[in-house]
Design a protein that fits this description.
heterodimer; A: 115 residues; mainly beta; 7-stranded mixed beta sheet; 4-stranded antiparallel beta sheet; 6% helix; globular; B: 114 residues; 6-stranded mixed beta sheet; 54% strand
Chain lengths: 115, 114
């Protein structure tokens, strides 16, 4: 099915571990983004990309890395997990024309717990 | 700076009541877009509506309606004759003209009781 696919859906990490959250879209969208959702704070932008090879920081980039080697994939790397990174992570994609009309298409989210 | 404020953290209504969710935004862009998303208990984010800064017409879609007022920087969402299935968290969001970044409000949790 077309859309944004995030894996895994759930993950528990120990403090200091690293991991990669995967995000893939098959809609040939230019834009991809990562958000984290915390209680009472809505969704906050971590990193975003406007095309393959181009990434930039959002509101809360510390502790995360991204790369965009292909149009389809936009993985989010946690370098050294901390309890403050316990959150629900959403990947989203759009292209400018579609973004103007529909906003983002979101993945189903990854619930991450850091202990 | 871009900012979206949803002052109502949680609202509870009884089925068939009308309810309005408030959204106030701040932006210096002359062209911008406003969105509403619904997040049901299952957790996914569902797009509801987009409005651009040049279109102040109100919109109605079934039981949903949106009131956009640039003079007060507000984009409020009304559900008429609420139903239990409307129970969800609703987010208002703002994007500038480049669509690289969306700024979300903190969300309003709507509880519709039978």
């Amino acid at each position: 099915n077309a859309g944004v696919t995030q894996t895994p859906k759930f993950q528990v990490l120990k403090t200091g571990q690293s991991m990669t959250l995967q995000c893939a879209q098959d809609m040939n969208h230019e834009y991809m983004s990562w958000y984290r959702q915390d209680p009472g704070m809505g969704l906050r932008l971590i990193h975003y990309s406007v095309g393959a090879g181009i990434t930039d920081q959002g509101e809360v980039p510390n502790g995360y890395n991204v790369s965009r080697s292909t149009t389809e994939d936009f993985p989010l790397r946690l370098l050294s997990a901390a309890p403050s990174q316990t959150s629900v992570y959403f990947c989203a994609s759009s292209y400018k024309g579609r973004a103007a009309i529909y906003g983002y298409t979101f993945g189903s989210g990854t619930r991450l717990t850091v202990v | 700076a871009q900012k979206v404020t949803q002052a109502q953290t949680e609202i509870s209504v009884v089925e068939k009541e009308d309810v309005t969710l408030d959204c106030v935004y701040e932006t210096r862009d002359t062209t911008y877009y406003l969105f509403w998303y619904k997040q049901p208990p299952s957790g996914e984010l569902v797009f509801l509506i987009r409005r651009n800064s040049f279109d102040e017409q109100n919109e109605i879609s079934g039981r949903y309606s949106w009131n956009f007022q640039k003079s007060t920087s507000s984009f409020n969402f009304t559900i008429t004759a609420s139903q239990v299935v409307d129970s969800a968290v609703y987010f208002c969001a703002l994007s500038g003209n480049n669509f690289n970044k969306f700024y979300f409000g903190s969300g309003t949790k709507l509880n519709v009781k039978p």
